[in-house]
Amino acid sequence: MPSWPSLLVLLIALFWSAQAAAQSEHPFIARFELIELDGSVRVEWTLLGGNTCNGMDVERSLDGTFFEVVHRIPGICGDLSAEVRYEWVDTRLEELSTLHYRIRLGSDGTSSVKQVRFDQLVETRFLAYPVPCSSELNVLLNVPLNEQVELRVYSAEGREVFVYQGFGKAHQLAVGQLAAGRYSFRAVAGYQLFQGGFVKW
Description:
Structural class: mainly beta
Helix content: under 10%
CATH architecture of the largest domain: Sandwich
Number of helices: 1
Shape: elongated
Distance between the termini: 56 Å
Order of helices and strands: HEEEEEEEEEEEEEE
CATH class of the largest domain: Mainly Beta
Radius of gyration: 24 Å
Strand order of the largest sheet: 4-3-6-7
Largest sheet: 4 strands, antiparallel
């Protein structure tokens, strides 16, 4: 059985870890958000009035550990009497990635780390997965978020077996009722035509 001193040390450690978890944001920052847009991510943050720093950096990471500077705001930031809102749009993104962001406030430390799952295609026209599939087929299209999509699935003999309609980039097709075999699909979105195939098992 643990001694009282070791129990006391454990309780103190738990207290301080809970305190650290509760302090989730930098004391200079009133708000920090990520908003996924069509092909980009908008980073928004607000400095509390009465706080200034010498320059700010937006830092990004793909693994949440190793960050790089992707945007820099030079000079004195913030205001001694009023909140100041900042925003920046990141358009140089890696498709199908989890993006981590933080704000570095000069020499005054960094904000918390926020993350967003960017399930959009940037250079690839379309992607269908998993292949082979069993019950669901995911189809990602490089189209605007509000684009209307009609997708038709055909058997190996060319017979239409499935019709789907939706909007945007990501579509999940319930193909569990289809017989095992090879299929092709045609997706029409605006003036774009996408053609691909998949195997159902």
